[in-house]
Write a structure and sequence with these properties.
Blueprint lengths: L4 H17 L8 H14 L2 E6 L3 E8 L4 E7 L18 E3 L5 E3 L6 H17 L6 E8 L7 H7 L2 H5 L4 E11 L3 E3 L2 E4 L1 E10 L3 E2 L9 H19 L6 E10 L5 E2 L2 E10 L2 H21 L7 E8 L2 E3 L1 H15 L3 E3 L11 H6 L3 E9 L1 H9 L3 H4 L15 H14 L3
Parallel strand pairs: 3-6, 3-7, 7-18, 8-17
Antiparallel strand pairs: 1-2, 2-6, 4-5, 8-18, 9-16, 10-14, 10-15, 11-13, 12-14
Helix pairs in contact: 1-3, 2-3, 3-12, 6-7
Length: 409
């Protein structure tokens, strides 16, 4: 079946450049969805559009056998591209808050869409070599953490019917041509928390007549650093970041409140619960210590589940990768990034696995590694300079999906 890859490659590379040059924000993936839908229809898939807003599901039934769901996410990010690529994005769009923002495929979802369409084409052209049902699912709004759940809520189970296994993948800042699997948790659960604390405003020349929310916020930030270092076991992995603090409007005005935005990454439900409790305890205690006139407020948003790969499915997939890719099939450690992919198989009640494949020029990666400068020289996802090399990235992502699917079909 993979002998047809050169034919697929002929249109894949152009499609990738087009998608990269025309990114779309979450829930705005109308152009992308149309390209996906048109291609799936041409390949003979039964297509359902508009699932969860802009999601697309293509189903190819080919006799009795397992039903395999393969997923790609479609949305881009509000990032100004700085890759210098000839097909770089110059797109601007209006975000959900009504703000004009630059848009870029800074996370590589254009790669995911292209690879899944390529895999769908190879499966359609190679129906003599497998039997069962192939499901190609293209999901909106992964970056907001609600796209997968939105498709589920919009009747995904009725659309796809019985599913035996779900597969997903993500391009990573690793050497192109390599794939990496991991049993158990591979991506962390994530919680963004907006914390509002209250003071008493006044003139900057008379701080004694105020309760300064800036000082209160600063004390909270310092104390929050002790959670990971002093309250989490060394064998547990937790990342707690204060990404934003805002208070006041002018240098000589002490405001009456401050807003902190926190991001938490965990792999274990009990650890997550304990850390959230510690965050609340510290914030409340610091507010009391500052004699805050009002209780703090906690707003949880952009929440992602842990991606916890099924051991049996992952082992089967890894073995298939080793047989196909040889020493380019690796076992990788968990990452602290987050995904909402697992909301789909969890809702459908099916096991799943999710793997990584490299997108960085191998020679460039090797030079950076030898110089001890990977973190300085290799762009990561969400960076304005993140631009996966077209090949062998697309070939690898396409082959990985086909190889993994065929281990079930």
């Amino acid at each position: 079946m993979l002998a047809g890859l050169p034919t697929v490659r002929a249109w894949q590379e152009d499609l990738y450049r087009d998608l990269h040059e025309h990114p779309e924000l979450s829930y705005q993936e109308h152009r992308t969805a149309k390209l996906v839908s048109d291609r799936l229809n041409e390949l003979g898939y039964q297509v359902t559009e508009g699932v969860g807003g802009t999601g697309v599901v293509g189903i190819l039934r080919n006799g009795d056998g397992a039903s395999v769901l393969m997923r790609a996410d479609m949305d881009a990010l509000p990032v100004a591209e700085a890759t210098g690529l000839p097909y770089a994005s110059a797109v601007r769009a209006t975000d959900a808050a009504g703000k004009d923002v630059p848009v870029m495929h800074a996370c590589g979802h254009d790669t995911h869409v292209t690879c899944l369409l390529g895999a769908a084409a190879l499966l359609a052209d190679g129906r003599d070599h497998w039997q069962g049902t192939a499901i190609a699912l293209f999901q909106p709004a992964e970056e907001l953490g609600g796209g997968a759940a939105g498709m589920v809520a919009d009747g995904l189970a009725d659309i796809v019917g019985k599913v035996d296994v779900a597969l997903g993948q993500h391009v990573a800042p690793a050497p192109a041509g390599y794939v990496g699997t991991c049993s158990g948790p591979i991506l962390a659960a994530a919680d963004s928390i907006r914390v509002t604390v209250y003071g008493r405003g006044g003139h900057g020349s008379m701080p004694n007549a105020t309760i300064d929310p800036v000082v209160l916020a600063a004390m909270i930030v310092i104390r929050l650093q002790t959670i990971v270092s002093r309250e989490v076991a060394p064998t547990d992995t937790v990342v707690l970041t204060v990404g934003s603090i805002h208070s006041g409007t002018k240098s000589n005005i002490i405001g009456d409140h401050a807003v902190l935005e926190l991001n938490l990454r965990t792999y274990d439900a009990a650890v997550r619960t304990a850390v959230i409790a510690a965050i609340k305890r510290i914030v409340i205690a610091e507010c009391q210590a500052s004699d805050s006139p009002k209780e703090p407020e906690f707003d949880f948003y952009d929440q992602f589940p842990v991606t916890d790969n099924d051991e049996t499915v992952t082992t089967r997939t890894h073995d298939a990768f080793v047989e196909h890719f040889g020493d380019r099939a690796l076992t990788v450690p968990p990452a602290a990034a987050s995904e909402d992919f697992s909301d789909i198989p969890r809702a459908l009640g099916v096991p799943y696995t999710y793997w990584m494949f490299g997108g960085i020029d191998a020679a460039e990666f090797t030079r950076a590694a030898e110089a001890g400068r990977i973190s300085q020289d290799i762009p990561v996802n969400h960076s304005p300079t993140f631009g996966p090399v077209i090949q062998p990235t697309l070939d690898t992502g396409t082959e990985a999906l086909v190889v993994a699917a065929l281990s079930w079909l």
